[in-house]
Amino acid sequence: MDADFWLQRWREGQIGFHRGEVMPLLEQYWPSLDAPAGSRVFVPLAGKTLDMHWLAAQGLQVLGCELSPLAVEAFFAEAGITPQVQRDTDGSHHRAGAIELVQGDVFALREQALATMDAFYDRAALIALPAGMRRRYVDEVYGKLPAGCRGLLITLEYPPAEKDGPPFPVPEEEVHALFAPHWDVERLTRRDILASEPRFIAEGVTALSTAVYRLQRR
Description:
By secondary structure, this protein is α/β, with parallel strands linked by helices. 27% of the residues lie in helices and 26% in strands. The protein is built from eight helices and nine strands. A nine-stranded mixed β-sheet has the order 3-4-5-2-1-6-7-9-8, with helices on both faces. The longest helix has 10 residues, at 69-78.
């Protein structure tokens, strides 16, 4: 899976991972972070998620990163917003109000871009990556977040032999292995969601759960 894979998915409209509403798990569990108004929040592999608008509405400063220019354009266009655009070595920065969305490679973000983040929200980034890329992602992206940074990580769990990702299953033991020893990891909930995911049922998946973790960097 390389950049062209995701760019093609957006070109062909194969974006079943996009939700047309704010993620209820975000609304329910974000308050557990106690992130004060004005906190800077990082959203990796953001797509055109409405969750960024929700975070901004909580008085937070949002920094998203998304590879696809089509996703970035759609995010602002669908909200009726015209952002200011500026380029640097991180990519094209699209800014409007409390939201800044960088169109570029999340692995290429400079450390200084993430060093001021107070929090993060990862709903569809870790599970978008195959097992062979997840260690690099945690080391190179999460590794740039500062001590004290905390956030929500949402994963999926299903029998890996029953479906080819993405999204990929990430079991709890892998979450702990990926983030130790630099992060404190607490699972907040695990829910059976198979009945509400007909696409997974159609592919032969027999068990599907989602889990929400609270992480804080030591």
